[in-house]
Amino acid sequence: MSQPTPSVGGTGRRLSLGVVDQIVASGSNFVAMVLAARLLSVDDFGAFSLAMLTYNVAVGMIRALCGEAILVRPGENPAEIRQRAAASVGSAVMLGILAVPVIAALGLVLGGRPGNSMFVMAAAMPVLMAQDSLRFSAFARRMPAVALVSDLVWLVLMGVGFAVLRQSDSPRPALMVLCWAVPAAVGALASAVWLRLLPVPALRLGWVRSNRDLSVPYLVDFVTGQGSGQMAVYLLAVVASVGAVASIRGAQTLFGPVPILQTGAMIVLVPEMHRSARQAPERVLKVAAIAGAAFAGLGVVVTAALWVLPDSVGTALLGDTWRSATEVLIPVGIAATASGLLAGASIGLRTLAAADAIVRIRLYTTPAIIGLPVLGAVLGDATGGAYGIAGATMWGCGWYWWTIRTEVGRRSAALA
Predict the structure, then answer these.
(1) Is residue 1 part of a domain?
(2) What stretches in the chain show pLDDT beneath 50?
(3) CA of 77: how far to CAs of 82, 136, 191, 197, 355, in Å?
(4) b or e along 224-239 (b: 16 or more beta carbons within 10 Å of the residue's beta carbon)?
(5) Distance (Å, rounded) from C-alpha 9 to C-alpha 218?
(6) Range of the domain at 328
(7) Which of 65, 169, 327, 364 has its CA 20 to 30 A from that of 10?
(8) Cα radius of gyration (the chain)
(9) Is residue 221 domain-shared with residue 143, that is, in the same domain?
(10) Distance between CA atoms of 330 and 326, rounded to whole angstroms?
(11) For position 1, what pLDDT does the model report?
(12) What is d(CA 155, CA 411) in angstroms, rounded to the nearest whole number?
């Protein structure tokens, strides 16, 4: 028996909870980085940052393999919903277990305090993956309150742990990783109890295998997206300067609320819309357009707000980087606005489970993501590089919208 179409009011409430949860989840990592920067020496903060970077890469890859598919394939009846959620979470936990020796090996290579931080992160990886996959399962079941409670528990207990560490004369990065990771286990336990779901490792990775038509393309999308973006940053540092990178990254940091809201909306809208995607794909296009327009409007508003921001406030936020960041504010704002439009189309394509189409887009956009910022930097240093990023984002935006219109048209014709 299929589930009823969600009401507008219910969707709005879940969307609000999803955005709040994303703010809390992102805020936890942000708070952890800020507190670590204040409590640790420069070298020890570097060790903590490496561990956090490792987590971000691992959770992005495992989320692509396990989390995103559950948003569009949650099941049609209570028994199937629970079975699929258990399979998704179990595969994520198993992948977390498989990541343990890899991350531990990195710790052996690094040695010292960076290595110890990696060892703690490796040990915590299965629990961290369980927390994230349970979070996605909660959204897939249209229960965002579960995810919000889990992330709030993590944030509060992490704050308590860091407060205790602050009393220490010389807190170590490995202990800070431990105080950051252990609360995730409590948050995961809260989600598991609420969802009545036991996160047992799936030795055969059944969820990944049965959904490889989505999981593998999503993994390719994540790896190429992250890889091309990082390569562009490294090349900017070579062609222009590290200062140019600092200017652009500083300005991008100020636009942080925009991607947070986009991610929060995506994780709610995809499971909400997928129920009507097969019967009325044109509705997906409409919602994607509304979401894209809203995200783009937010980009314009943030750009305008930053443009009139007093220097004293900007300096308090970014320190000495503020002045150079203002020089690239307009092109970074253009990129943020175009990224908002792109995000709307991306949500639509994920709702349609058009994973192969998303990978094809990468074939056309990756060269621009790498090449245009470098070309811009050659012509105009930091400002030119920022305009190159804006140009690459607009190029990608065009491809995403052309693709979703094509996908919706093809599916609508098949239903006619």
Answers:
(1) no
(2) 1-4
(3) 9, 18, 20, 16, 25
(4) bbeebeeebeebbbeb
(5) 31
(6) 213-415
(7) 65
(8) 21
(9) no
(10) 8
(11) 40
(12) 43
The tokens 């990023």 sit on which residue?
Answer: 389
Angle, alpha carbons 162-29-351 (nearest 5°): 150
The pLDDT of residue 7 is 55
Tokens at 60, concatenated = 């992005």
CA distance 42 to 85: 42
Domain stops at, among 157, 188, 210: 210
Tell me, yes or no, whether 233 and 379 share the same domain: yes
Question: Which three-class secondary structure state does DSSP give residue 107?
Answer: helix
Query: Please, how many CA atoms are within 13 Å of residue 147, restricted to the half-sphere of its CB?
Result: 29
- Does residue 3 lie in a domain region? no
pLDDT of residue 377: 95
- Give the pLDDT score at 11: 78
148 near 20, Cβ under 8 Å? Answer: yes
- 42 in the same domain as 104: yes
- State whether residue 143 is helix, strand or coil: coil
As for how many domains the chain has, the answer is 2
As given in the structure block, the two tokens for residue 65 are 């393999």
Nearest to 32 by CA among 139, 123, 106, 121: 121
Cα separation of the two ends of the chain = 24
What torsion, rounded to 10 degrees, do the Cα atoms 206, 207, 211, 216 define? -90
Quote the pLDDT of residue 6. 53
Q: Per the domain annotation, does 98 fall within a domain?
A: yes
Length of the chain: 416
Residues 165 and 148 in one domain: yes
* Contacts for 258 with CB less than 8 Å, ≥ 6 apart: 295, 298, 299, 302, 336, 339, 340
